[in-house]
Automatic annotation (TrEMBL), chain A:
Organism whose genome encodes this protein: Paractinoplanes globisporus
Taxonomic path: Bacteria, Bacillati, Actinomycetota, Actinomycetes, Micromonosporales
Record-linked PANTHER family: GLUTAMINE AMIDOTRANSFERASE PB2B2.05-RELATED
UniProt feature coiled coil, ranges: none
Stated name of the protein: Gamma-glutamyl-gamma-aminobutyrate hydrolase family protein
One Pfam family of this chain: Peptidase_C26
A GO molecular-function annotation: hydrolase activity
TrEMBL record, chain B:
UniProt cross-references to Pfam families, sorted A to Z: Peptidase_C26 (PF07722)
Organism: Paractinoplanes globisporus
Name used for this protein in its record: Gamma-glutamyl-gamma-aminobutyrate hydrolase family protein
Source organism, top-level taxon: Bacteria
Transmembrane spans: none
GO MF: hydrolase activity
Length: 227, 249
């Protein structure tokens, strides 16, 4: 039996065929394919703030990308450009915190990395361009920022990525304080692009989008850890 | 204490939201809410996968609504109105077989009931209006046929056979919402136990020897009447409670 990997999902009014704007649980198919191609069996986890009990059936967890977190989760006031989606936050925090507690293998992507950070006691910058003076991490709507990362020698991400430092970013928030996690990768402007917890089996957050290229290094490492 | 884990078969398809147009694994939240409201925990099963091993992690499964099943599966030619989804067909027929073999509690909704019938060796009508001469079973998309001001399309009665499991659950009569143009013709190894009284279209099938295998042609997840979901969750909870003993043995 393949490891079962849960993927958190969006809830959005979606349209297809004859249907218009039906509130739907959905996740870009790239995530599902990335898990499958890495040897895992993906199931999608619609938001649910009741309990994290679904984790007992899972071998690993992907915290997927999506909208900004509600800043109250890290004790901040909402800034003008923050676009949160509170319906997802509560259930995903339950999952992230419990997954850390029980040392479930965990990959956080973009929003997922930010969620992981906040679940580990960290904080976020709400709009990076205000601090950086550039928009390289999200150049335009629907356009990934092609960037290069510098990975900490000896880190998990350095071992997984090797000499390949090209990443595809699409975010306007970023990690300000990693909490109990360790920052192991940054772009040249200093923005954290990778966080890890070396004390746990597999806890990795990346600010870029490895699912888009179905990156077997990262998803493969998650699935291996989940076996 | 954990809740029973209920798999929901889902779409993998191109969807639009906001300014995005992406290939997504997705399912309307009505199904998710129906499972959560009746005490289960829903996970979505996308139809891309060559295996059925996910069944081992579930306590119950819902085969959700969707497009038409390819008539090749019951040896018929394709009707011009039949619109198939080959990826879901492959995956769901395989999953349905595995679920029934494992005696996993199964609920089939609309297309899901049709998948059940086909896996049971049955056949479908491909386009009901050809047979009954009207569109009573197909509401306009996006409408609620049970709303007070709705047209009659998509709303009809169902009579339930006395002595069936469905009768114990739903009573002898109910009014339902319908969004389908195909229907079960022969239910194969399942029993047909509910019909639309106006045209005798099969609306409920069940399997008398399985722990819980029920198919309904309407969309209970879009109504406040979630009895069939509650019954599935109950059967799944019963199974989940028994499972640890089996593993220990």
């Amino acid at each position: 039996m393949r490891p079962i990997i849960g993927i958190t999902s969006y809830v959005l009014p979606a349209s297809w065929g004859v249907w218009h704007d039906l509130p739907s649980a959905l996740v870009p198919y790239d995530y599902v394919a990335a898990v499958r191609e890495a040897g895992g069996r993906a199931v999608l986890l619609p938001p649910d703030d009741e309990d994290a009990d679904v984790l007992t059936a899972l071998d690993g967890l992907v915290l997927a990308g999506g909208p900004d977190l509600e800043p109250r989760w890290y004790g901040a006031e909402r800034e003008p450009l923050t676009e949160s989606h509170p319906e997802r936050d509560e259930g995903e925090f339950l999952l992230a915190r419990r997954a850390l507690e029980i040392d479930l293998p965990l990959l956080g992507v973009c929003r997922g990395m930010q969620l992981l950070t906040v679940a580990a006691g960290g904080r976020l910058h709400q709009h990076l361009p205000d601090r950086l003076g550039h928009e390289k991490h999200r150049p335009a709507p629907g356009v990934y920022g092609e960037q290069e990362a510098r990975f900490e020698p000896g880190s998990r991400i350095a071992a997984l990525m090797g000499d390949d430092v090209a990443i595809q970013c699409y975010h306007h928030q970023g990690v300000a304080d990693p909490g109990s996690l360790t920052i192991t990768g940054r772009t040249e402007d200093g923005v954290p692009e990778t966080i890890e917890d070396p004390a746990r089996r597999f806890v990795l957050g990346v600010q870029w989008h490895p699912e888009v290229v179905r990156d077997r290094r990262l998803f493969g490492a998650l699935v291996e850890a989940a076996r | 204490m954990r809740r029973p884990l209920i798999g929901l078969t889902a779409y993998a398809q191109q969807v639009q939201y906001g300014s995005n147009d992406v290939m997504a694994g997705m399912l309307p939240m009505t199904y998710v809410r129906a499972v959560h409201a009746t005490g289960g925990r829903a996970v979505l099963i996308t139809p891309d996968d060559p295996g059925t091993d996910v069944i081992e992690s579930l306590d119950g499964i819902v085969f959700a609504g969707g497009g038409d099943i390819d008539p090749a599966y019951w040896g018929a030619e394709r009707h011009p109105e039949t619109d198939v989804d080959p990826a879901r067909d492959d995956a769901e027929l395989m999953l349905m077989r595995a679920a029934l073999d494992a005696d996993l509690p199964v609920l089939g909704v609309c297309r899901g009931m049709q998948v059940m019938a086909v896996v049971g060796g049955g056949t479908l009508h491909q386009h009901l209006p050809d047979i009954i001469g009207n569109e009573r079973h197909r509401a306009a998309s996006g409408t609620d046929p049970l709303a007070a001001d709705a047209s009659a399309y998509g709303r009809h009665d169902v009579v339930v056979q006395a002595g069936s499991r469905a009768h114990a659950l739903l009573g002898s009569h109910l009014t339902v919402n319908s969004f389908h143009h195909q229907a079960v013709d022969k239910p194969g190894s399942f029993d047909a136990v509910g019909w639309c009284p106006d045209d005798r279209v099969i609306e409920i099938i069940e399997h008398p020897e399985r722990a819980f295998a029920l198919g309904v042609q309407w969309h209970p997840e879009r109504t406040p009447d979630l009895r069939v979901f509650a019954a599935l969750t109950e059967a799944a909870a019963l199974r989940a409670g028994v499972q640890p003993i089996a593993i220990a043995a």
